[in-house]
Specification:
single chain, 392 residues, alpha+beta, BirA Bifunctional Protein, domain 2, 9-stranded mixed β-sheet, 4-stranded mixed β-sheet, 15 helices, 16 strands
Length: 392
């Protein structure tokens, strides 16, 4: 291994973003943020690093295994590098913006760092763009988040977009109501549900009882397109608390179908993975032929660690820039004009006209066509006009 190769090595899951992808990522981020601003979402910018005990307080403890830690040489307190920005926004809303009338609408964009990647997202550092409505219980708030994100993604050019609605509170509500207190049984059940493994659920019938077994088997069979799934779910004889959770999902679906009847919606009532701190209806965005989730979000609690304040509810979405870029066509190269550095007045006029100019510093070695190709320019200035490289 030579010295240049050694200096180019990076830790697993980290990567340099090079031209033109880096510029494209920045453009996509600003387009999305501008789209959210049109709906009244105001931008906030939390720090990359916070005190560990604050960052991981309350619901934040669910992200502890994904959080890098370090010692602050000034305060001598432990710090955490954010693995997710959502709970930082919750902190800002409950402290710095605690006196603002509810609901408040916030947006954000930044990098997050995680201890481990996943099979679908091996990167440990990636861009996260988000929107949050804080302080509203209305299903219309959930619908606004989902529809606003879907609209922004579709306007970018992402085709065949779908949203998968989940209810991670449903399964706990069932086993609490039916008094399933065996940790072993619950763990086996969760594994079977995560894998949609009906035969594995069948094997748990003796421990669960026939009634409980039938409920969980029916839930797995309810996975699918929204109308059929919702019809199947409403036929299940759910305990009162679980039925109340299902009603919340139904209310959001009514709002979605009223405002966006053509949006592709599916339901997965047994999916719980990745929703560590969520407390209500959740959702994930997918696109056909695109590996991995484009974004996800749902209901969660704000102030769930401060006993002096009643927790307020929030709903939001996080969009993942790396997946968004994979879902979009490779960006076309922008036109660039090579021009001699001895022509600054011409270069200035070209930039005012919208051109990107690349100045050549060595007049003696200026060979217009060859040098333009060398510096990845599409055009050059021949002293009188702009000439395309390909036609010169």
């Amino acid at each position: 291994m030579n010295e240049n190769t050694h200096m180019g090595l990076l830790p697993t899951g980290l990567a340099d973003i090079l031209p033109p992808e880096a510029e494209f990522e920045a453009q996509i981020t600003e387009i999305l943020m501008a789209s959210f601003a049109q709906y009244g979402y105001e931008r906030v910018k939390p720090p990359l690093i916070e005190f560990e005990d604050i960052l991981l307080s309350g619901s934040g403890i669910k992200m502890a295994k994904q959080t890098f830690r370090m010692m602050d040489p000034i305060s001598q307190r432990m710090l955490g590098v954010r693995a997710d920005m959502t709970l930082q926004i919750a902190r800002i809303a409950s402290t710095r913006l605690g006196d603002m009338p509810r609901p408040i609408r916030l947006s954000y964009a930044g990098q997050v760092l995680r201890v481990k990647g996943s099979n679908l997202r091996p990167k440990r550092q990636f861009g996260q763009i988000g929107i949050e409505v804080i302080g509203s219980l209305s299903p219309q708030a959930d619908a606004e988040i989902i529809l606003m994100a879907a609209e922004a993604l579709s306007n970018l050019g992402i085709a065949n977009l779908s949203v998968d609605l989940c209810l991670p509170t449903l399964i706990p509500a069932i086993w609490e109501s039916l008094k399933i207190d065996s940790t072993t049984m619950v763990n086996k059940l969760l594994v079977a549900l995560d894998h949609k493994d009906v035969p594995a659920i069948e094997m748990l019938e003796k421990g669960l009882g026939k009634k409980t077994h039938n409920i969980f088997s029916s839930l797995v069979k309810a996975v699918g397109p929204v109308d059929k799934a919702l019809e199947t779910l409403k036929k299940i004889n759910l305990p009162k608390k679980a039925a109340a959770e299902l009603n919340k999902l139904s209310d959001i679906i009514v709002c979605l179908k009223d405002r966006a009847p053509n949006l592709t919606i599916t339901i997965d009532p047994v999916e719980t993975r990745g929703y560590e701190y969520h407390t209500g209806v959740t959702f994930t965005f997918f696109a056909l032929n695109v590996r991995g989730e484009i974004g996800r979000g749902g209901r969660y609690l704000v102030n769930d660690v401060n006993r002096d304040k009643v927790p307020e509810t929030a709903t939001g979405a996080s969009l993942y820039v790396d997946t968004i870029l994979r879902a979009l066509p490779t960006p076309k190269k922008r036109d660039r004009v090579l021009i001699s550095s001895s022509k600054p007045e011409v270069a200035l006029k070209l930039r005012k006209d919208g051109w990107i100019t690349v100045e050549h510093f060595n007049e003696n070695k200026l060979n217009n066509r060859a040098q333009a190709k060398k510096f990845d320019c599409t055009h050059f200035w021949n002293g009188k006009k702009i000439v395309p490289v390909e036609n010169s």
